[in-house]
Amino acid sequence: MSIDDKNVILEIDGLQTYFYSSEGVAKAVDGASFSLSKGKVLGVVGESGCGKSVTAQSVMRLVPSPPGKIVGGRIMFDGKDLTKLSMAEMRHVRGDRISMIFQEPMTSLNPVFTIGDQLSEMFMLHRGMSRKDALDASVEMLARVQIPAPRARAREYPHQLSGGMRQRAMIAMALSCEPEILIADEPTTALDVTVQAQILDLIIKLKEDFGTAVEMITHDLGVIAETADSVVVMYAGRVVEQADTVELFENTLHPYTRGLLDSTPILGRRTAGKFEKLNEIKGMVPSLYSLPKGCKFQERCPKAMPICSEREPQLTEINDSHAVRCWLHIPH
Predict the structure, then answer these.
(1) CATH code for the domain of 74
(2) Domain range enclosing 133
(3) Residue 113: alpha-carbon gap to chain centroid
(4) Same domain, 127 and 206
(5) Which of 21, 28, 33, 47 has the highest count of CB atoms within 10 angstroms of its CB?
C-alpha cells in the first residue's frame, strides 16, 4: 500500500511477539506490519485472541516477560526502533510521547491513591512540575475530559467514581502530556451504550485538539465506521486485510472481515418482513499453540479452497488503499 513517509509517525514492520510456556510457543503476533499517520485514527479489529492487544503492548514494551518476548520485527517511532530501547529509555517515551488507555480502568488505576495524585505523577515525572502545579494541571485536565466538579473528583479514589468517570480519568491521564500517539485498547468495553458514545466523541475531540494520532483497538466495526480513517483486520496474530475505512466497508475482500461485518447487529434489519437472525462466524479461533497449516482461517471459511490448507497466502496489495491475505484475490 502506498504510504506517505512524511506523515507516518509509527511503523510496525514484521512484528513477532511470542509467549513461551510448558504447552509450547504461542505466536500471539506473527509478522504483523502496518503504519499510523500523524493526526489520523487507525482501527485495529478482530476477535479476542487475534493479537490486537499484544501488538499494542509490544509498542508500549509492556509484554510480560517471561513468558512473552518480542522475537522479531521493528517498531519505528521518531527514527528509533522501540524494540531496541532500554527500559529506562522507554520510560521517557511511555506516557509522555506514546500513551495508552486500557480496557478496564479499575485494573489500571491504583486503588490506594487519589485520582489527583495519579494524574499529578504524570506532570511531575515528565514535565518536572511541583506537586501544587501538577495538581492544578490535573484538575484542568479532568475538566477537559468533562468530569464535573474536577477539583472534588481529584480528591477521590477510583472506587468512588462510576465506570464512565474512571474511563474519563484514564483518558485525562493518557493525554495529560499531549502525546503524539494514543493507543485506545477497547476503551468502551465495560460501559453502557450512552457512555460509550460520549467516550468515543471525547477521544475524537481531544485527538483534534492535541493533533494526536490514535490507534483504536476494538472488536466493534460500528466503532470503526464512526471513528477510523483506515482499518487493519487481524486474525491469529496476522494482518489479513488492510484498507481505508470507506474502501473496506464498500469492497470487503477477506471472508473473515465479511464475517465480522455480517455479525454486526443492525437495529431493525428485516428480510421479508421478519427480523433477521444474527449471523455468526462458525467455529472458534484456533489455538495459538497448534495453528493449522496454510491459511489460518481456512477451517472456518465458507469459501475455502484446496490451496488454502496447503499454503498460507501473503498480504498482497490489491490497489493503493487495499491489501488482503486471501487466495480468492491472489493469483496462484
Answers:
(1) 3.40.50.300
(2) 107-176
(3) 27
(4) no
(5) 28
Quote the pTM value.
0.87
Give Cα separations from 109 to 45, 54, 82, 256, 279 (angstroms).
25, 20, 25, 35, 37
pLDDT confidence tier of residue 12, bands split at 50, 70 and 90: very high
**Alpha-carbon torsion 258, 240, 30, 224, what sign?**
negative
Cα dihedral 176, 178, 183, 189 sign: positive
For 250-301, how does the pLDDT look when each residue is reduced to its tens digit (9 = 90+)?
A: 999 999 999 998 887 666 555 555 656 777 888 888 888 889 999 999 999 9
Amino acid residing at 61: R
On whether the CB atoms of residues 300 and 281 are closer than 8 A, the answer is yes
Omega within 30 of 0 (cis) for the link into 66: yes
C-alpha cell at 178: 499531549
Helix/strand/coil percent split, the chain, to 5: 35, 25, 40
